[in-house]
Design goal:
Elements: E1 2-3, E2 6-9, H1 13-24, E3 29-33, H2 41-44, E4 50-51, E5 60-61, H3 62-73, E6 79-82, E7 86-91, E8 97-101, E9 106-109, E10 111-114, E11 120-123, H4 131-134, E12 153-157, H5 161-171, E13 177-182, H6 191-202, E14 207-210, E15 213-218, E16 225-229, E17 234-238, E18 241-244, E19 248-251, E20 262-263, E21 266-268, E22 281-283, E23 288-289, H7 297-315
Parallel strand pairs: 1-9, 2-3, 2-10, 3-6, 10-22, 12-13, 12-18, 13-14, 21-23
Antiparallel strand pairs: 4-5, 7-8, 8-9, 11-19, 15-16, 16-17, 20-21
Helix pairs in contact: 1-3, 1-7, 5-6
Length: 335
Amino acid sequence: MIKSDIIIIGAGPCGLFSVFEAGLLKMRCHLIDSLPQPGGQCSEIYPKKPIYDIPGFPEILAGDLIKNLMKQIAPFNPGFTLGERVEIIKKQSDDSFFVVTNRGTEHSCRVIVIAAGLGCFEPRKPMVENLSFFEDKGVDYIIKDPFKFKGKKVVVSGGGDSALDWAIYLADGIASQVTLVHRRDSFRGHVESVEKIHKMSNSGKINLITNAEVQALKGADKLTSLTIKAEKNNFSIETDYWVPLFGLTPKLGPIANWGLNLNKNAIEVNTYDYSTNIEGIYAIGDINTYPGKLKLILSGFHESALMCQSAFKYIFPNGKKSFKYTTVLGGIEGF
């Protein structure tokens, strides 16, 4: 039986930052994640993707953000159970929680923080014939290592931030040719990214095709070309890779069975402290929902800070917080 003050379900950026906030209040955390390493989507899906809205970092790669967070929480010695999914949560008579993973690992804690991002997720796949045949043979739904596409012809499909960001990144000296295909002439991504796409298109660094979509895949043992369905006519384009980035389909998995108030695929919380309808269970980051919710890492960090203050009061109702501004500590070691 592994015992801790707080179990954090999900070791993405919000879950990791919670260890720091809890550590300042001398609460010990244990993180459980179904992925084999910490970092969530930042490590598993886009470790080389640049992120632009982290305070103090005009630009930072997702993987580097996770490395920094791991360094930041190291003084607090959190525990990790990786490659396992939480299946069962039971509240005990003393108000503690009994938690069991799919591999039978048992945990005990006073507070549970659900920081599971999108929950269990899978990419949204386009309805294209023979798509499954070309998976890992030229069709990729996520980009883990962009240098896989070094010197290659790449077609990216999509109109959101992920598609725009990767098209820009790959066109900047990595791929030999980048084509961005979108079914409309307007995009859902950030204004700056859209402006950059049009600028790179005008300069010839990106081949931009709008009001069109991929209709067919061609190749013997691997992908060699795509058929593009456009407004006026269909045409073919040679490529080594097609990367359709149409977002992820979230699936709550076991979370749906824990008695939490759900709104679609998200957990409803009180914005005072991001508590759920079950006392002692909190939800932060993309997994929660409330009026005005912004699904940003930045917002999740804020939610984590308020949640930890409330968690301390729940665990130690008669305790006196020793929290101070970190600037007066002379460093975290020994705090």
